[in-house]
Design a protein that fits this description.
Layout lengths: L10 E6 L7 H17 L4 E6 L5 H12 L5 H25 L4 E3 L2 H4 L1 E3 L13 E3 L2 H9 L2 E5 L2 E3 L5 E3 L4 H13 L3 E5 L5 E2 L11 E2 L1 E3 H9 L7 H10 L3 E4 L8 E4 L13 H9 L10
Helix pairs in contact: 1-3, 2-3, 6-8, 7-8
Length: 287
């Protein structure tokens, strides 16, 4: 197993989205990425936030609706949580197979508790209390802690979903609470583009965005990063690195204007949004 790191070592948060977990083999590929990050910064502890495998959340919702047309929200959240917990366990097992000292934690061990009733349909960011003790306990004994995204606990310790794209919000909340050195959001594209790169090979990759620009893109319909997560990152001044598993590919840094080093944007936000709206994109495409 890999050597333990000091309890006072810096912490980084890496979120791996469901679009990465397309097959069983995808978990091994994601684990290889985490292993490489650990090897690059061996004195850094990693908190890896994961989503359910691609399509599983919709599949579980359809299962619930087939039983009762309007599922009880608490029961649906509990059913949904099985997808995230499966990803947590599978990724942790693959990390252990690579020789990393990794632990798998559940929703109640992540330490996020909402202060009121918050369900997936709400457009407002929930008020969340973060108790870092269980997570720090795990990190004191392991180099990597794998935790479920998309969920927090309610005051009765029940699972509560944080809305579509909620794993992004989980990652930013943890980065804020842990005073993380960085927050990486791993997607199926290497950051933001001026159009959907899957359908438009000429799409322009955007190396730098301000929080205001990222929020404008979200308002224009780009759901690459959850809007509530961008809002919190902006308020807490947490730089976001949006990238793919391909470490040779470019990435997008989302940060405040004064944090943009060598920032030279050719297009204005308005130009990019206008260009995006002129191109038909599937749901979930990058801007």
């Amino acid at each position: 197993m890999s050597q333990f790191v000091s309890a006072d070592s810096p912490i980084a948060v890496i979120k791996i989205g469901g679009s990465i977990f397309k097959t069983a083999q995808s978990y091994r590929q994601a684990a290889a990425y985490v292993r490489n990050r650990h090897c690059s910064w061996p004195h850094e502890r990693l908190v890896v936030v994961v989503s359910a495998q691609e399509g599983l959340t919709d599949e579980l919702a359809a299962t619930a609706i087939a039983i009762v047309p309007q599922p009880n929200p608490a029961s649906l959240d509990l059913l949904w949580s099985t997808g995230e917990l499966r990803s947590v366990a599978l990724l942790a097992l693959h990390l252990q197979a690579f020789g990393l000292c990794a632990t798998a934690l559940g929703i109640h061990e992540t330490g996020l508790t909402i202060t009121g009733t918050q369900r997936a349909g709400s457009s407002h960011r929930p008020e969340v209390h973060f108790d870092s003790r269980r997570l720090h306990f795990g990190l004191a004994r392991h180099s990597v802690a794998v935790v479920p995204g998309f969920f927090a606990m309610d005051p009765t310790r029940g699972a509560v979903s944080l809305g579509r794209g909620g794993s992004d919000l989980t990652a930013v909340m943890l980065a804020q609470g842990l005073k993380a050195s960085r927050c990486e959001l791993i997607k199926d594209v290497p950051g933001y583009f001026s159009a959907d790169p899957h359908s438009n090979p000429a799409a322009l990759h955007l190396a730098h965005l301000t929080f205001e620009q990222a929020l404008a893109f979200a308002d224009a319909g780009c759901d690459l990063v959850q809007r509530k997560a961008i809002e919190l990152a902006s308020q807490a001044n947490i730089q976001l690195v949006i990238r793919s598993l391909d470490e040779t590919a470019p990435f997008t840094l989302v940060a405040s204007q004064h944090q943009q080093v060598g920032y030279a944007e050719t297009f204005s936000v308005e130009t990019l949004v206008t260009h995006r709206n002129s191109i038909a994109q599937p749901k979930g495409a990058a801007l």
